[in-house]
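Please, structure for the following, as tokens.
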Amino acid sequence: MTNLLFHPDHAWLAVEGGQGTIGISDYAQQQLGEIIYVDLPEMDTEIREGEPFCALESNKVATDVIAPVNGVVIETNRSLEEEPNRINTSPYDLGWLVKIFLKNSAEGEGLMDQGAYDRYVAAK
């Protein structure tokens, strides 16, 4: 995906029109290890920026995914139920988590671009 924006909690957002696609960063999946389970939200779930909306379990830890923006879930990546490790092998393509309807066009303005995110994780 192109023009990704990143939240400090390692979720990414790709915006196209009034919709957004959300996943976790390559850095995050590396830190988690092999993803073995994904708990996706239901359709029409309202997600709020800074709040958990999805849970991942890896061979190391269970963790919540924090929403990078506000929106309403319009699609979930059901292929992750059978193949959760797609998040590891393709975090920006096949491993996306949800697609959302954005609450407003300004969603994502406070997120980092790829360069800023790379500097952010390098400082950790």
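The chain has a mean pLDDT of 95. The longest strand covers residues 52-58.
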